[in-house]
Amino acid sequence: MGQQQAYDKAIALIDAANGEDPNEEVVDAKRWPKEHLYAHRMSEMLQRYAADADEAVRLAIRAQHIQRWKSPRSDYPMNRKGYHQWRTGLYKFHADTAALLLQQAGVAADTIERVKLAVGKRALKSNPDTRMVEDVAGLVFIEHYMQAFVDKHPEYDEAKWIDIIRKTWRKMSPQAHAFSLSGDVTLPEPLIPLIQKAVAE
């Protein structure tokens, strides 16, 4: 099997796996399995942000949330320690699940290893693949999910939201910062003053 065939098969397997998500979102009157939609949004943002990204990065971006619903937050204690345990377990679950599908697709071993490291959020400061996944995830959150997150938490005051925005911002590179404010990312209209205030420092 050629490299392109293996890549195409891997994308199809990732999409099929995320297509099993029982949670749905409706966009433009079309129903999407939630994580399948997220994966498509990640790939679409990567195309805008770094169109020349190689195969390993494109696969890692597509698999970033692979079958996330199978590792729910409720499986862990509802405190700070439980949250960190969940995140650590989640990264390993995503990395292992992605690697298994890529092996089934016949993707090269060195590419699979790069995808595992990036999806597992390993070596953020030194691994450019992990850095790219974090950048694209931050951009997708800002464009597609930040407004819904705000709407879900009316109890949060401005100081809390500025803190949340700054935490998202700190995970992103200077290149992603510039891109998010360049007009290439659709910022949620009601939050633009808050975003500008949060990132002004």
3D architecture notes:
The chain is mostly helical and 201 residues long. The protein has one domain: Hypothetical protein af1432 (Orthogonal Bundle). Helix content is 65%, strand content 4%. It is built from nine helices and two strands. It has helices at residues 3-18, 34-49, 55-63, 80-105, 109-119, 128-152, 158-170, 174-180, 192-199; strands spanning 24-27, 30-33. Strands 1-2 form a two-stranded antiparallel ribbon.
Tell me the overall shape. globular
Strand percent estimate: under 5%
- Main sheet record: 2 strands, antiparallel
Given the helix and strand composition, which structural class is it?
mainly alpha
**Total tally of structural domains:** 1
How many E strands?
Answer: 2
> Can you tell me the CATH architecture?
Orthogonal Bundle
Residue stretches low in confidence (pLDDT < 50, at least 5 long) are: none
The helix/strand series, from N terminus to C terminus, equals HEEHHHHHHHH
Average pLDDT, to the nearest integer?
90
Structure annotation, total helices: 9
What keyword list fits this structure?
65% helix; two-stranded antiparallel sheet; Hypothetical protein af1432; 4% strand; 201 residues; single chain; globular
Blueprint (SSEs and pairs):
Layout: H1 3-18, E1 24-27, E2 30-33, H2 34-49, H3 55-63, H4 80-105, H5 109-119, H6 128-152, H7 158-170, H8 174-180, H9 192-199
Antiparallel strand pairs: 1-2
Short description:
The protein has 201 residues and is mostly helical. It has helices at 3-18, 34-49, 55-63, 80-105, 109-119, 128-152, 158-170, 174-180, 192-199, and strands spanning 24-27, 30-33.
